[in-house]
Amino acid sequence: MASAPSSAGTRRRMPTAIKILVAGGFGAGKTTLVGAVSETEPLRTEEVLTDRGVGVDDLEGVETKRTTTVAMDFGRITFGEEFVLYLFGTPGQERFWFMWDEVALGALGAVVLADTRRLADCFPAIDYFERRGTPFIVAVNCFEGAQRYEADEVKQALQIGPGIPVLLCDAREKESSKEVLITLVQHAMKLRAAR
Amino acid sequence: MNYPPQEPEHERWLDESAGPLVRPYVMTSGRLQPVRGEFDLITLVEATGPAPSVAIGLGPEHLSIIRLCQTLMSVAEITAHLDLPTGTVRVLLGDLLDKGLVTVQEPQPEIDMQDLRMYQAVIDGLRAL
């Protein structure tokens, strides 16, 4: 991989940065999943937006010209000196699609976190990644007290393609969250290899 | 549908979420775009040296970035540590890159991400967590 620093010289080689998105509706557990595997406490990056960026057909959120702050929580996992992986919990609302564009550019893939109590909340994310061709999987976060469904039932309800992995997870658990990410990377790798 | 918490009806000074009293655009002299560089959220940045003691044309936020980037850091991490909007940090980083005070590494473009070895390294790394 070509990864020479922009000003060449004797400085050491920088690692390659990789990003994975964790999308889903509000409260689906995005930050929880990021925090379960991140080597640091999740950090928050914010973008200040004016009406310019916000969907004009949305009358509920923005009535007058004002600024909106869109926040993303993110975490980091360093793999030796060669790779550093960033996990971004992306804002779930469809009206922030323009921020998804920025974050999705160059992403290895995306995890769509689904909450079976509000399954429709993850539709915009699925539509978006399908349209954009970003490799994605669906992870159903099994909240305590939430009615449990089988992965196949959720898959049918979401009407996604047969090749897209759907698995159940507990975003609070490190092992479970690791499994989600491994499933995504394996899926993305398969898609790349098939090209 | 769920929306983020509504902003207050009238802009107020100094409530708990008032943020910095210096508006972000003041730090960038009103500029919206960096003079150099793209600065993706995962672009990696490292200072080329310690913060200069005489810093003509640099603001305190520029110096904060240089101090932070004594160790390698992504644009997203810089924005989080300085609690500044991404757009503002991009402009400041462009100034620093232009003056040779930082080196950057933009991430791989999507089209080049076909390195299967990278996928395997990430899978192995995750398993070992």
UniProtKB/TrEMBL annotation, chain A:
Family: Belongs to the GPN-loop GTPase family.
Entry keyword annotation includes Nucleotide-binding: yes
Keywords: GTP-binding, Hydrolase, Nucleotide-binding
Coiled coil (UniProt feature): none
Species, as recorded: Actinocorallia libanotica
Protein name: ATP/GTP-binding protein
TrEMBL record, chain B:
InterPro entries, per the entry: DUF742, WH_DNA-bd_sf
Superkingdom assignment: Bacteria
Pfam families registered for this protein in UniProt: DUF742
PANTHER family xref list: DUF742 DOMAIN-CONTAINING PROTEIN
Name of the protein this chain belongs to: DUF742 domain-containing protein
